[in-house]
């Protein structure tokens, strides 16, 4: 028999109910939530529907299943406030909040820009760019991966400064006297790629926030094009004007 839309979405209703009870303090940290049998009886649904609801809470980080014992409520940390302004710097943001933070360069290359990079940086197809993949962590937990692209003509011999990478903007300021100014950012919720989900230690069915940005020279010419993929469950974005 074909399931109705109401039946298909019933697990979301159960998941929302449990999250609400956790937020209200009905189930506290390290406390066990009702068993599958109890939830089946309470909501008059089959075991598969309950398992879908429990799986959703597990993926979102609200609970941890313990084999043979049940599911227990996790400590949910407050989301980290990330400020976006014309001169945003990750390290300064985290220092102001007293958070331990780090940036790790996981890959870089130098090559021709693709069409999107050409359009956003005002380049020709024969120009060269540096392309960096940067993993940023807070309290030793990965929070974002950013692909950053910069014209080679603006940061010549950039690879000389990547051996002991700690901060992109520190390199730009100290070695090139450049401090990019944000000109625009686009926000979009999406699901992570399998690679990003693995690096961010995030289930691939949990949304991330994609932030596509262009940073300029003080003169207004584009200097940096970036695409950040940020864990939505750990992040709250504040846009300052």
From TrEMBL:
Which InterPro entries does the annotation name? Bact_HTH_transcr_reg, Chorismate_lyase_/UTRA_dom_sf, Tscrpt_reg_HTH_GntR, UTRA, WH-like_DNA-bd_sf, WH_DNA-bd_sf
Keyword terms, alphabetized: DNA-binding, Transcription, Transcription regulation
| Span of domain HTH gntR-type | 8-76
- Top-level division of the source organism's lineage: Bacteria
Which PANTHER family does the record associate with it? MANNOSYL-D-GLYCERATE TRANSPORT/METABOLISM SYSTEM REPRESSOR MNGR-RELATED, MANNOSYL-D-GLYCERATE TRANSPORT_METABOLISM SYSTEM REPRESSOR MNGR-RELATED
Task: List the protein's name.
Answer: GntR family transcriptional regulator
User: What is the source species?
Assistant: Alkalihalobacterium chitinilyticum
């Amino acid at each position: 028999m074909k399931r109705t839309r109401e039946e298909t979405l019933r697990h979301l209703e159960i998941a929302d109910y449990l999250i609400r009870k956790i937020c209200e303090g009905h189930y506290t940290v390290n406390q066990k939530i009702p068993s599958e049998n109890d939830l089946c009886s309470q909501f008059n649904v089959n075991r598969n529907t309950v398992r879908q609801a429990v799986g959703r809470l597990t993926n979102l980080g609200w609970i941890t299943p313990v084999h043979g014992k049940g599911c227990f409520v996790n400590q949910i940390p407050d989301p980290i406030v990330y400020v976006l302004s014309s001169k945003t710097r990750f390290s300064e943001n985290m220092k102001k909040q007293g958070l331990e933070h780090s940036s790790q360069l996981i890959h870089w290359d130098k090559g021709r820009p693709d069409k999107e990079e050409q359009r956003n940086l005002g380049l020709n197809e024969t120009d060269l760019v540096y392309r960096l993949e940067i993993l940023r962590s807070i309290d030793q937990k990965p929070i974002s991966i950013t692909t950053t692209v910069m014209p080679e003509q603006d940061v010549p011999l950039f690879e000389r400064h990547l051996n002991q990478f700690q901060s992109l903007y520190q390199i730009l300021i100290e070695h090139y006297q450049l401090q990019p100014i944000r000109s625009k950012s686009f926000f979009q919720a999406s699901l992570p790629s399998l690679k990003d989900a693995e690096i961010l230690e995030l289930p691939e069915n949990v949304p991330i926030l994609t932030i596509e940005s262009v940073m300029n020279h003080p003169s207004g010419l584009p200097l940096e094009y970036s695409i950040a993929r940020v864990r939505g469950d750990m992040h709250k974005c504040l846009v300052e004007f």
